[in-house]
């Protein structure tokens, strides 16, 4: 497949004057004989002791934490040259070919096709010559063997139960205290504030059973004995409340239902949507008359111009006059006026959602913008977008008008100040100032904005400017 390429790195371990290409599977110390320690002043002591390099899972984007092996282009035993594509990796938004920096032989595949690995983890081993292939295969086998025991140890729940048998004694404080009293006299520990309360309320602490750690008498014990804490018993049943959530996961799936795990892209979308919940947002809707825009579209459509390009251009021109709507807040302590106006447009693709970015949309003419958009859509559907082509947006447009949706709200993407949801343009009866009725095409746009940096007046002014551009769209062709 024709996909974008990303080189992988090999780990270089430097120790004194000895250099060894080692892996996480091999010892971290240098492969030097203990009897012949090289001098620090020796220029000839620089040597490569191990000639097996690891192929790592690369970070194909700033948000990527793990990757999925789509396919291995090369097979075990294949001879590789620097720059050859070795494996296709699925990131959170695209599939990319990964190249090699070195010549060698693909000695072992550690992560097979269809499986995932965290960023930085070894996915294959590269040998410099045939002599190291056997050693590489042994390391690959030991790595897979060493990685399997942890899962085997993890599911062994028997060790946790023994601690639970010993912990009930401290947990059930009153029987424990009674048991210690039966064993013999022990020193009663009372907290300072509990002593003070005992004196005030004339409570004999020797007759109390402490509920604190190791039977310690707490202020709550004294207040309870003095009869001034009637609400305490009612609070004690509160701890079982955490057990309630345990009942929700216990609901069995419906008969015949199928559980489908998220794809890498769906997992990334879900993560971003959950992250957006931490941002305080508000929404403003605005009706826009589209008769003039529709007429312009009919003129430029034969030249390859799309409605998406028209809306993106109009949005970019409005953002030029309202830079705060193009700003972003990432740390919650400050916000950034972005120097570029990059319009991200939501596109539904098979198995997910992606937002290709029209960079510097305010500076490109309408026809070049349309051509660029077509290229981005083709790359998005082939999952070949470069990271900067989908994660550099400063403002997002989501259009469901082509599906007949008249209005909807969009969720603000993390790291952006606003997103505009565009509905369908529909004939609407309107009345002019003289009371005469007419039918005009109108569409409703709803903007969701980050209220930390964009206020209601800012958004209203932006929408008014956007409406003026759409209602008199000749400036879009300049």
UniProtKB/TrEMBL annotation:
<dbReference type="GO" id="GO:0009941">
    <property type="term" value="C:chloroplast envelope"/>
</dbReference>
<protein>
    <recommendedName>
        <fullName>Dihydrolipoamide acetyltransferase component of pyruvate dehydrogenase complex</fullName>
        <ecNumber>2.3.1.-</ecNumber>
    </recommendedName>
</protein>
<dbReference type="Pfam" id="PF02817">
    <property type="entry name" value="E3_binding"/>
</dbReference>
<dbReference type="InterPro" id="IPR003016">
    <property type="entry name" value="2-oxoA_DH_lipoyl-BS"/>
</dbReference>
<feature type="region of interest" description="Disordered">
    <location>
        <begin position="136"/>
        <end position="184"/>
    </location>
</feature>
<feature type="domain" description="Lipoyl-binding">
    <location>
        <begin position="52"/>
        <end position="127"/>
    </location>
</feature>
<keyword id="KW-0809">Transit peptide</keyword>
<dbReference type="InterPro" id="IPR036625">
    <property type="entry name" value="E3-bd_dom_sf"/>
</dbReference>
<dbReference type="GO" id="GO:0045254">
    <property type="term" value="C:pyruvate dehydrogenase complex"/>
</dbReference>
<dbReference type="InterPro" id="IPR045257">
    <property type="entry name" value="E2/Pdx1"/>
</dbReference>
<dbReference type="GO" id="GO:0004742">
    <property type="term" value="F:dihydrolipoyllysine-residue acetyltransferase activity"/>
</dbReference>
<dbReference type="Pfam" id="PF00198">
    <property type="entry name" value="2-oxoacid_dh"/>
</dbReference>
<comment type="similarity">
    <text>Belongs to the 2-oxoacid dehydrogenase family.</text>
</comment>
<feature type="compositionally biased region" description="Low complexity">
    <location>
        <begin position="166"/>
        <end position="183"/>
    </location>
</feature>
<dbReference type="GO" id="GO:0009534">
    <property type="term" value="C:chloroplast thylakoid"/>
</dbReference>
<dbReference type="GO" id="GO:0006086">
    <property type="term" value="P:pyruvate decarboxylation to acetyl-CoA"/>
</dbReference>
<keyword id="KW-0808">Transferase</keyword>
<dbReference type="Pfam" id="PF00364">
    <property type="entry name" value="Biotin_lipoyl"/>
</dbReference>
<keyword id="KW-0012">Acyltransferase</keyword>
<feature type="domain" description="Peripheral subunit-binding (PSBD)">
    <location>
        <begin position="189"/>
        <end position="226"/>
    </location>
</feature>
<feature type="compositionally biased region" description="Pro residues">
    <location>
        <begin position="148"/>
        <end position="165"/>
    </location>
</feature>
<keyword id="KW-0450">Lipoyl</keyword>
<dbReference type="InterPro" id="IPR000089">
    <property type="entry name" value="Biotin_lipoyl"/>
</dbReference>
<dbReference type="InterPro" id="IPR001078">
    <property type="entry name" value="2-oxoacid_DH_actylTfrase"/>
</dbReference>
<dbReference type="InterPro" id="IPR011053">
    <property type="entry name" value="Single_hybrid_motif"/>
</dbReference>
<dbReference type="InterPro" id="IPR004167">
    <property type="entry name" value="PSBD"/>
</dbReference>
<dbReference type="InterPro" id="IPR023213">
    <property type="entry name" value="CAT-like_dom_sf"/>
</dbReference>
